[in-house]
Amino acid sequence: MAAAGxxxxxxxxxxxxxxxxxxxxxxxRSYQTSKTSSSVPSHDQxxxxxxxxxxxxxxVVLRTGATEVVEKLPIHLKTTLRCIPNYVIYSDxxxxxxGHHVYGVFDDLSQDLTDAVPDFNLYRxxxxxxxxxxxxxxxxHDGSSATGSLDNPGWKLDKFKFLPMIDKALRHMxxxxxxxFVELDTYLMWSNLLDYLSKFDERTPHYIGKQMFIGDVLFxxxxxxxxxxxxxxxxxxxxxxxxxxxxNQYTIAQWAGDMILGKVLKDVQVPLLWAFPHFQGDPVSxxxxxxxxxxxxxxxxxxxxxxxxxxxEIRSLWEFEQKWYRTRPKDVLLRHADVFKAxxxxxxxxxxxxxxxxxVNPDFSGEGDHSxxxxxxxxxxxxxxxxxxxxVYKEDTTVAASDSNISHAMTEPNPxxxxxxxxxxxxxASETRDEDKDDHKPRxxxxxxxxxxxxxxxxGDEPRDPHAQVVSDPEVSDDEGPxxxxxxxxxDLLDDTPEDEDDIEIVHSKISDMSxxxxxRFKQMKRLCLRQNRIESIAIPEDVASTLTEVDLYxxxxxxxxxxxxxxxxxSLDLSFNxxxxxxxxxxxxxxxxxxxxxxxxxxxxNLEGLSNLRQIELGANRIREIEGLETLTGLEExxxxxxxxxxxxxxxxxxxxxxxxxxxxxxxxxTGLEKLVNLEELHISHNLLTEISGLENNxxxxxxxxxxxxxxxxxxxKGLKHLTEFWASNCKLSDFNEIEKELRDxxxxxxxxxxxxxxxxxxxxxxxNKVRLALPQVVQIDAI
Length: 785
Hints:
Layout: H1 6-38, E1 58-63, H2 69-78, E2 87-91, E3 95-97, E4 100-104, H3 111-114, H4 121-129, H5 132-135, H6 153-158, H7 162-172, E5 178-183, E6 187-188, H8 190-197, E7 207-209, E8 211-214, E9 217-220, E10 226-229, H9 230-242, H10 244-253, H11 257-267, E11 272-274, E12 305-306, H12 311-326, H13 336-344, H14 384-390, E13 434-435, H15 466-472, H16 474-477, H17 484-490, E14 503-505, E15 527-529, H18 542-545, E16 550-552, E17 572-574, E18 594-596, E19 616-618, E20 638-640, E21 660-662, E22 682-684, E23 704-706, E24 726-728, H19 737-744, E25 752-754, H20 759-762, H21 765-775, E26 781-782
Parallel strand pairs: 1-2, 1-5, 2-4, 7-11, 14-15, 15-16, 16-17, 17-18, 18-19, 19-20, 20-21, 21-22, 22-23, 23-24, 24-25, 25-26
Antiparallel strand pairs: 3-4, 5-10, 6-12, 7-10, 8-9, 8-13
Domain Fringe-like glycosyltransferase: 174-272
Membrane topology: Single-pass type II membrane protein
GO molecular function, one term: glycosyltransferase activity
């Protein structure tokens, strides 16, 4: 055979090279296609749903830091920020990220502060070395817990950002009427936010966000997002400039910048509007739609923010939100229920091996009756009151709640208990956030426990919520409207109510004179609820009073218990959040079962001798120093004494039917006086000064114990408690896993434990959960997961 010529060899090499090129080309295209399909799908700007009602009047401020911005900002640039016309990014380091300028927030601060305070070490490194100042020590942002991320140098800087950020934001857009502050792991429902803000008068100072406490300071949680009107911004700036040195020293001594801002707003008399459940501190995947706080369940309310959102969650939720709004009328808002039913629920499998939905678990930080929305609700869940509160109620707004697993499939209990200021100020446990301090549940571990019962199907407004005024108060829209004290006298609020109505509820209507309601018309009335008004005295006609079984006067201005002589059939009386100093004139109410005196000025438990049928009494957040006057209440099953000044447990020997005792946030140094309470099932004793667990030998029926936020170093005293199902011990001083195993390993019914914030968790956070599982294999839930 003749040898191949050079032309043939050339052609053969050419074909091989060409084939290799084709293979590489399609490989690269395949890779690029795969990569593109997993990133954010592109939308032509014209196809985006971007509401513009008041969009140009709002500046969105993103607060971040050099340790996280490169990782977390890009997803927002591709999604949520595409609809927001005005936004600015503030950080501890000025730089460019994907063509977007990130402004430094500290450049106007005094050098005396930035050069001398140790918390500014990272800032000084960044100023001199740029991003090399990060890589030197391997600094990263590893997330934050309930107490923040206190070991992260970037997180230590965060508290100093809030006040200068307010100043810079106003200077950046002085014409803005609203300023909305979020973090990079906050998801903002832009359409719902604009609708929400439009209900307020931007000409007056407003401070709106998800409520939290540290000690006595109420503030809006920064991670959940918060809003300030321009007048509120100016008040903060004026105060900051006048007190900058004092505020710098205050900031150095604290750890949470959002709390510091809340303190300033309190000082300038701009109160916080409690914006739960619109603003959320949880990611969409773990939000408990059944949690009840301040009389509200998320299920029926428009969603405004979610927190702790990962990049893939932000992308996915943004795609869902865009699609949802493009296929619906513009005036229909996206509710938490819609998010669950259309976004979460379709992703769930019908069955999941060893899946625990926690559907029977209680809410640990919410207020009131925790009535779940479950498949057992055959009827639709009425959300009219929720929509009326939001100002957008439509006739067809009932949500069917009968889908399988619809209410709890993705829920989890709230975060672990948080520390709170103790009046004795003797313990050295670090002060941490006390979320929702005034939201109270039977198993609330947020610092005290007056659980504030609500009606199961009632969704009202929080105390003194100016949002509700926007809908109904003429003062907001009419400068010539009548002053508040005249509202009750000028109109009959019950004019359209049939006289055979047995349940009357008027909430947040500025009623000061009950006689103006002409209640004598309602001879068959059984329940009367006049929450959150301005009532100073109780005036109910005797013939009506004699038929009432439930009276709710929560959050009024009542200072004296009078006018109740005809209340002989009453089984429930709520006088919480008033100004009562003495318990009097109740002995004739022999049928009374539930009595609520949360947040009054009561210093002594007295005059309860005749209430032999009493099953529950709530005296949380008063001024009580001694447990007394309860000896005759032998049928009592629940006693709530959180947030008082009690130093010793005593006077309970006769209460042998007691099942729940809550005595959180007092001044107890030891557990005593429980020997006779053999039927006790729940003991909530967190936020005290306990150094050990003892005195529980006879309480063999205990199934829930909360000792969180006590300076307890060693776990002892639990040997005989075989029925323990939940054990809460967050933010103590426990360091030995061997003690955990020794005390709790034999508790076969134990399902939930909380040890977050202890040395045993902080010292080895990566190994902590595995060590708990090894020590307690029967446990289903560790902390919030």
